[in-house]
Amino acid sequence: MRKLKILIVGFGFMGQTHAGNILQDSEAELVGIVDCNPPDERLRVIRGNTDSVSICSDDVAEIPHYTDMTEAFEKAKADACIIALPTKLHFPAVMNALEHRLHVMVEKPFAIREEECRIMVNAAKKAGKILAVGYVMRHSPEALRLREYIQKKTLGELKFMMLKRIAGMPDWGDWVKPEFIRESGGALFDLMSHDVDFVRFALGEPEDVSAEPLAGEWFGSNLISVALHYPRCRVLLQGGFVTPSGYPFRKGYDAWFENGTLQSFGSRSCRLIRGSDVLPEKMDEACNSYFEELHGFVKAILDGDMSGICPGEDASKTIALCHKIAEKIHI
Fold it and tell me: Model-level pTM greater than 0.90?
């Protein structure tokens, strides 16, 4: 069986997450890591979202390490790469990879500038390569259950939905630099675009956007509170980075339908509320959303099955909606 040969570009916490999942995928092979620092050093010092996969120095000890991206593209004989760099570096890295005839998955947000999104999408089409963006909420069991209930109208029409995603401002790595936060897109593009993308994935494009100004007055652009308007329902998005840095991360949703409510209060958990009955929904506790995202990318390239990726063209629409939100909240 042919394995897809993949390079990781950027070995921060998301690069480590993707590398660990490549090592677990029987249809993929990790053929190189690109980072300015040695992988074992990065594994010692990086903090963040590493609990979804187990990876240690021994796992990558024999994986070729490159400090130069172009050299890696030329020498590693890869079929594809995953770009897990800071947002401001997405555009040049993706363009470099496409010029070297590689399929690409790039971490969210796709880019901050809409023009860069358009250029990357067109470059991928011209190269005949797949360009995917890492909006992992499209693979989360609790989110997929909600989308299923919406589209199948299991509980009737959706009337109102609230999604929350809140975290303390990171106090490690480049996050301590205000310019890095700005270049990442801040709370809206870097964090809340997960929820913006999912709402589009579940409901399509909204008719309009309205904003709650008080959130901005208290927290500047670090806290977002907006409503997306649909013909028969409203969707409220709230969240962002709030102080202090130790503020516990939490996410979830409440979705009110004609005949019941679906509620989620974390990963792989949701419950159905009908009248006085509160019923837990069965979830696959072993599901690793990041693995499913990675495997969807692999299957798209090996089998032509595009159902498991967020294409760059679709991610561009998420960025466009984020800009529409930004106009409403004046950031």
Answer: yes
